Each structure stands twice: as C-alpha cells, then as structure tokens.
Amino acid sequence: MSTNKNNLTTSWGAPVGDNQNSMTAGSRGPTLIQDVHLLEKLAHFNRERVPERVVHAKGAGAHGYFEVTNDLTKYTKANFLSEVGKQTPVFVRFSTVAGELGSADTVRDPRGFAVKFYTEEGNYDLVGNNTPVFFIRDAIKFPDFIHTQKRHPQTHLKNPNAVWDFWSLSPESLHQVTILMSDRGIPATYRHMHGFGSHTFKWVNEQGEAVWVKYHFKTEQGIKNLDVDLAAKLAGENPDYHTEDLFNAIAEGDYPSWKLCVQIMPLEDAKTYRFDPFDVTKVWSQKDYPLIEVGRMVLNRNPENYFAEVEQATFSPGNFVPGIEASPDKMLQGRLFAYSDAHRYRVGANHNTLPINRPIAPVNHYQRDGQMRFDGNGGSSLYYEPNSYGGPTESPENKPAPFEVSGMADSVPYDHNDHYTQAGDLYRLMSEEEQSRLIRNIVAAMKPVDKDEIKIRQIGHWLKADPDLGRRIAEGLGLPVPHNED
Fold first, then answer.
1. What is the pTM of this model?
2. Is 67 domain-assigned?
3. How far is CA 256 from the centre of its chain?
4. Same domain, 468 and 355
5. Which residues on neighbouring strands pair with residue 96, listed in sequence order?
6. Which domain CATH number covers 113?
7. Cα–Cα distance between 435 and 479 in angstroms, integer?
8. Which SMART domains match (predicted)?
9. What domain count does the chain have?
10. How many Cβ atoms from other residues are within 10 Å of residue 286's Cβ?
11. Annotated catalytic, 56?
12. Residue 205 catalytic?
C-alpha cells in the first residue's frame, strides 16, 4: 500500500481510492450505504457550522503582541504588566454586533474589540467595544435589548419600531445612541477606530492595595469614519470590506497598532464621584482622571484558518489574572457568566482547550470529560480535591482582594439617573458639520417608526440632552417639539 504523504484519506487516516464517484449497485444502481467515505463527507458537511454567536457574529481577527511601555506596578501585580519591555502574545477579534454571520461590515453598529492576552499566569480577556459606553447598564435588560436589534418573528425583517420603542423607554441608552448615530457609528476600517474595555475593573498591587481602572486602546492609525452613502455602497459591493482591509494590511506588512492607556480612580472616589463610576452608560472625565500610558499592541500575523482561529476563538470578561478583578458594574457582573456560558453552548464544554483558546500557562485542574475532549482528559491523574496524593492545590496569595458589601438584598436600580448631561456634552463638542450629520442619521433612522408616540418620547430625551438637538430632530421628523417636564 502506498504511504505517500499526499494521499487523500478519510478522517480516520485510511486512504481514499475514489473521491469523484459514489459507490453504486451497477452503473445506474442506487448508492450503497457501505460507501462510508461518502457518508462521512456528507455527515461532516452537515455539521461544519457551529451555531453563530448571538451577538458579534460577523468578525475578523489577527495575532500580535502587547509590549509594556510604562511601569504601573504600583497599581497592579499582573505579571504581564510587570516590566517595561515585556511582551505578551495576543489574539484580537473585531466584529459588528447586531448582524448575522453574512451581514455587511459597513453597517451602522458598534464594533466589538476583544483582546486575548496569553500571559504566563493564564489567559486574560479584555472584551470591549469601539465605544466607551453601552446602551444599558443592567444585564437583566440585555436579552430584551438584543431582541430589538434582531429580526421580527413574523416578517423576519429588521424592526425600527422595536429599536426606538426600547431606546425611548430606556433613557440610559441616550449616550451610546448619540455615539452610534454620529460619524463614529461607521468606522472606515477596524484599524482606524479606538477600543475600550468599557466597564470599570479593579487593579490590585502586591501590597493588596486596589484602584478602579478603565481601559482605552488608542489607534495609532488615526480615527477615520465612512460617509453614510459610501458605507451603503460598500455594503452592496463589498460586504466584507473591513475583513479584507485588515487581512491585506497585515499581509502587506502594514501592521496596525494601538496605544493602551488607562484611567485610574482611587477606591474612595467612587463614593462621591458625580456619576456612578460603575455605570457603563457613563464615562469618567479625563480631566478628573487623565489617561496613563500602559503599553502598545501590534497585530502582525493573519490567521492560517478562519474557522479554527477566528470563529472558534472564545472570549470572556471573566477570564482574569492575579492583579485584575471585577467591579460592581451590573452589566459586567452579568457578562462574567453569560460569555463563558455562550461558548459552552456554541463551541462546547472544552472550548478552552482548543489551540486558539488554550493558555500558554500550565493548566492544572480536576475538570474531566465533556464533548470533544481531545487532550488526554487528565489521563490517570487525580480527579478530585481535596486529596491525599499531592494533587494541585489552591494558592491563597492569589485570592481576589476582599471588598466590603452592605445593604438589603433587593432588585434595585442605580442611584444616579442623569442620562442626559454626557450625551449633551458630546453633541456640544461636535462641529456644526458633525452635528448636522448626526441629526440627519437620527432622522433617517427614526422615520420608519410607525408610532408618533415613540418618536415624540425619544425626542423628549434629545431635548433634555440639548434643546437645539431635540428641536432639530423634531423639525426633521415634521413633529412638534414636545414640552419636557423635569
């Protein structure tokens, strides 16, 4: 038998003698069930697609590295940030949020910005967007919000009535909606946009001292956005425009890069700051907490296989390393569970053993079995803890920092409900040309809504953010300016 390494084989390694013709009973006879190669090909083909992500389905990714450029060890003991010049491999996935796997890259939508750091203490995932805020601030509203961005259950069409009805009844969304409807709602490429951790996190140093932190990835290519008409043209002519641009830039040696900066807030400031620092619909003023440089991220290698590396990549904001912890941000708290649970459903219980997700740090635990276990499954090693046989044990020095909690267990909203100041400030920072484009985009997006009640309710929010903004939107929609009551 030939052992040529180029022989086509079955998935079990047996050579295939004929890959052009099915085995039949005579030249015109029915196909035989004993043609196991045919059955294997068809059965595998039926199962080639894992379920697409509920959100962030369409995306592109690349490998690279992160290099520390500033010593911030007084704030965090995270090993990958411990030394200026230290490099850590990363994998980054960019994505649109609401569309399906085959949707266009150039639609008006936030962009996902997920970074996996392969550190010596385990994988650290920073799973954010290209915006510093989000539409909602409590995870209990997330399924309802995403339902409004998806398709109507009867028509299977996008539903602007649901979108604006939800937003108008959720005024905390106003800041993010303002960003979405601005020029930044359609980035020119994945390379020409900032990235943000969005949530507040906690950094802890070697002495156990903690601070609150926010992450900002600043593009070194400069911010560029797409004109709305050009974006629509590209959506029809080249729906994979952003995916293509990222791949080609890296292939040609034009490696995209970002400078990582953080804002640091002392723990005590959280009690008195004028906005709730854990509310993901708000930003911290950079005048109050200036950006501090941390390092630089460079993407310099394309994936070899999209499915294996981009589609099967799994990220979770719950993947921390010592020195980085969660905050009381309610959206973050929900995501700590939801993301890993989504991956267990979509890719499998052992998704973190796949090469793209596997840590470079040693992995020692007692988890066993589950679908697609391909790594030896722990062999004959110990499979429970505590034990008397020298199996892996906890390291108390790596316990999360303790924090104080108080109050009644209850379903309660955030204490701060000013949803208008920051959206209005953003509008007033824009040039007249930027303001006009923002209003044009809002009016165009709201016109299909069939209920004036929804439009007027939303205009009321714009009025509270800025009277000029609300008035101009009302005029664009041909509606009276509603009277706002505080």
1. 0.94
2. yes
3. 19
4. no
5. 111
6. 2.40.180.10
7. 19
8. Catalase
9. 2
10. 11
11. yes
12. no
Q: What is the pLDDT of residues 383-418, one digit of tens each?
A: 888 889 998 888 888 888 888 888 888 888 898 899
Structure tokens at 355: 């090469």
Query: What are the tens digits of pLDDT across the range 117-171?
Result: 999 999 999 999 999 999 999 999 999 999 999 999 999 999 999 999 999 999 9
Q: Can you say whether the dihedral through the CA atoms of 278, 344, 52, 239 is positive or negative?
A: positive
Within a domain: 143: no
Out of 37, 63, 123, 129, the active site residue is 129
Q: Are residues 127 and 231 in the same domain?
A: yes
- Is the domain of 104 the same as that of 238? yes
Structure-block tokens of residue 64: 């690279």
Query: Residue 141 domain-assigned?
Result: no
Length of the chain: 486
Largest Cα–Cα distance of the chain, in whole Å?
Answer: 86
Do residue 257 and residue 340 come from a single domain? yes
CB atoms within 10 A of CB 449: 20
Could you say which of 317, 334, 360 is where a domain stops? Answer: 360
Which residues make Cβ contacts (< 8 Å) with residue 24, sequence separation at least 6?
30, 31, 32
222 and 326: one domain? yes
Cα–Cα dist 281/136, whole Å: 6
Choosing from 37, 56, 175, 343, the catalytic residue is 56
213 is in which domain, residue-wise? 59-132+187-360
Residue 238 and residue 340 in one domain: yes
* Tokens linked to 104: 């266009």
